[in-house]
Amino acid sequence: MGRTRNKRRADAGPKxxxxxxxxxxxxxxxxxxxxxxxxxxxxxxxxxxxxxxxxRVGAVRxxxxxxxxxxxxxxxxxxxxxDDFLAVDVEAVxxxxxxxxxxxxxxxxxxxxxxxxxxxxxxxxxxxxxxxxTYLVDRNAQVFKRAGAGDGLDLPLVTGFGRDDFTQxxxxxxxxxxxxxxxxxxxxxxxxxxLAAIQEIHLDDDWGVTLYVGDEGTQVRLGQGDLPQKxxxxxxxxxxxxxxxxxxxxxxxxxxxxxxxxGVRLSGSSVGGVQDGAGGTPAPARVDGxxxxxxxxxxxxxxxxxx
Length: 307
Hints:
Strand order of the largest sheet: 6-5-4-7-8-9-10-11-12-13-14
Helix content: 25-40%
Shape: elongated
Largest sheet: 11 strands, mixed
Order of helices and strands: HEHHEEEEEEHHEEEHEEEE
Radius of gyration: 39 Å
Strand content: 15-25%
Distance between the termini: 134 Å
Number of domains: 3
CATH class of the largest domain: Alpha Beta
CATH architecture of the largest domain: 3-Layer(aba) Sandwich
Structural class: alpha/beta
Oligomer: single chain
């Protein structure tokens, strides 16, 4: 009896091993079939993803555009709905959109669901400049487009250049424009805008800088150099004139012999007054006349010609 039981136990070993082998083979087959199915599914999915509708550009969206319309940006863009999403050259899109005159910078990126988003940063117009036609200038002194009635902008006008100046010595013109923008900034820092906003800045190699300010177009002859000091004197003169209810036709701040002297010709008067020093009210008339400047103030449609 003992031998029989031992024999049965000895015979159970090989049977168990054979069952385990069959089970392992079955798992291997199932794993292989599963892996093959996964591989086939992955290939199918990749083909669908790269060739099917799910990877086509669904939309081209534009953000940040105010002056430039969304339609204009989309028209300039090199991508269209239905294009291959992965093949879109976003840098080419950015370069194309940057051709719009109002666009300073453009950034394009892919989004999910598949679409291209174009974010634009527009130029900030700072002034107008006469170059044989009126053009817009941004904060970097870049002339970027011809001004149109639809722009709806009321900006200071920079004059003293011609079209030939811009085409033949552009760097020099841009330097002059940059100087005019610096004058606008310094004028604002001095607090002069509420007293008399700048309407026009005329630049001349001989006369220097002449401003036309306020609703009356008062001519302010700054000449050359000492801008902060001159604007400080102008501030005091304009405040004194306002306090007395008077307006000036011409204000001289360009006396090189007496740089601290201010000459004033009151509106409706052929004579002027002078102010010695930096403060005080303009004195009664003590000047028989004032020298003529670079020209009288003219409308923006016919700005001063360069002399």
